[in-house]
Amino acid sequence: MMTSRSIRCSARVAVLAAGLLAGTAALAQVTVQDPWVRGTVPGQTSSGAFMTLQSAEGAKVVGVSTPVAATAEIHEMKMEGNVMRMRALPSLDLPKGQAVQLKPGGYHVMLMDVKQPLVKDTTVPLTLKIELADKRVVEQKVDAKVRDLTAGNMPAKHHDHGGEHQH
Predict the structure, then answer these.
(1) d(CA 35, CA 52)
(2) Which residues fall in a coiled-coil region (predicted)?
(3) pTM of the full predicted structure?
(4) Strand, helix or coil at 90?
(5) What is the DSSP annotation of 23-88?
(6) Class of residue 90 by CB neighbours under 10 A (exposed 0-12, middle 13-18, buried 19+)
(7) What is the pLDDT of residues 55-114, one digit of tens each?
């Protein structure tokens, strides 16, 4: 026979389970494929993280963090005239059902003030902050494998990081 105390306990467990399932369903709305980070050499303070993201219902990435770098931001590289420019973005739209590639020479996660060398075949934990279509913000954990320093290199072109330096 169930007492009122055991009924209350069962109700709490059911509410908790429903909340966990709702959170899991929210995360399932955004899939992450082939996450990777470009390796570094000692003394190198920046790198990039790359992956393909797809949202079932439409969403946007509104933030990124990682314990391996002081700063992680969504960036875009784009040709302006004859110069490749890179700029930080406040968010990255994930249109419903469309794959969005984060790749060298395009959208990517910029890792700045990297705290230690990123060694090939190790893993970098990333946390994506994703705003869902219903405006809830959820965190999605991603483990990105470190690839060789030369992985994904593009042909040499003139580029600009927003500073006043020349090559």
Answers:
(1) 7
(2) none
(3) 0.75
(4) coil
(5) HHHHHHTEEEEEEEEE---TT--EEEEEEEEEESS-EEEEEEE-TTEEEEEEEEEEEETTEEEEEE
(6) exposed
(7) 999 999 999 999 999 999 999 998 889 999 999 999 999 999 999 999 999 999 999 999
